[in-house]
Design goal:
mainly alpha; three-stranded mixed sheet; 11 helices; 70% helix
């Protein structure tokens, strides 16, 4: 019965993709009716929302609305279909561990800052500074509204719901943990930087990050640490240093003119190694009860 409810939950989430993408479908349909053929052709070629006649708010809404709706549906399924408390989809603890969340966010934010600072010192000409206070304030507000549900969905779905359900079939979480970390990376294949730079150099970054976050979830028996890291990572790229050619361009204060994927892979690997070194140095053991992935449906 538990396995059936898990499969049923996945089917409901798959069906929910239709209403989740309905607003954007209606928007595109409106462009077709108005004869905006050239605009739609430019968007089809690049899949870049900036090619459409949308303001920053519109781009945020159409990009992140699916995450907001699917997050709500996922937690409803967890409560109503599986009969579990919403918090158990995030942690094995009785309370949300804000200390772990803040630690993950703060450390990763500092590592992201250090990475760009080093690159700025070495290649100052590769950074363009264009700070517009009002535009950045609007960007900050939009980020606060839309980034949290996006990060929450990716973490709870890929590193909780799928792995918990997969453990029902395998008996141990290691197989679903590795499998869904791989799938998490492969889902980024649609990103424009993959087409521009190639999957061979880009996929290790996405898959490696997925494995890194899954490892931390396993070690800490919950998502708090990975939620903090994930939010810091996405916040830095959207709100502070934006790279041209990425999936979502914003009026961040700094723009990286030419993005080097090999350097990015090296810095990311170093950041993950440094994070583990700093965390283990302060707290010798990350180990928990290892009950999070075994939380029965």
């Amino acid at each position: 019965m538990k396995r059936i409810s898990y499969v049923g939950g996945l089917l409901i989430l798959a069906l929910a993709l239709v209403p989740a993408n309905l607003p954007f479908y209606l928007y595109v349909r409106g462009l077709v009716k108005r004869g905006e053929g050239e605009v739609l052709a430019a968007f089809s070629a690049t899949r870049d929302l900036s090619a459409l006649p949308l303001g920053l708010g519109g781009r945020f809404f159409y990009t992140f609305f699916p995450f907001m709706l699917l997050t709500a549906i996922l937690f409803l399924l967890w409560r109503l279909l599986h009969g579990k408390k919403p918090l158990s989809l995030i942690t094995s603890s009785e309370r949300f561990r804000f200390g772990l969340f803040k630690k993950g966010f703060g450390l990763w934010f500092l590592l992201s800052f250090a990475s760009d600072l080093i690159q700025f010192i070495l290649h100052r000409e590769n950074y363009r500074f264009n700070f517009e206070p009002l535009a950045w304030l609007w960007l900050l507000i939009l980020g606060a509204i839309f980034l949290i549900p996006q990060v929450l969905l990716e973490e709870t779905f890929f590193r909780a719901y799928l792995i918990k359900g997969g453990t029902l079939f395998t008996g141990k979480p290691i197989i679903p943990l590795l499998l869904f970390s791989l799938i998490f990376g492969l889902l980024h294949m649609a990103n424009p930087e993959v087409e521009e730079y190639g999957a061979l150099i880009m996929m290790p970054q996405y898959i490696g990050m997925g494995l890194f976050l899954a490892f931390l979830c396993w070690e800490t028996d919950g998502l708090e640490l990975s939620l903090g890291i994930h939010l810091a990572n996405n916040s830095w790229g959207l709100l502070f240093v934006n790279s041209g050619g990425t999936a979502f361009e914003t009026p961040a204060p700094f723009t990286l003119i030419e993005w080097n994927p090999l350097a990015s892979l090296i810095y990311l690997t170093m950041a993950m190694a440094l994070f583990l070194t700093l965390y283990y140095r302060e707290k010798p053991s990350l180990k928990g009860k290892k009950s999070f992935f075994y939380n029965d449906y």
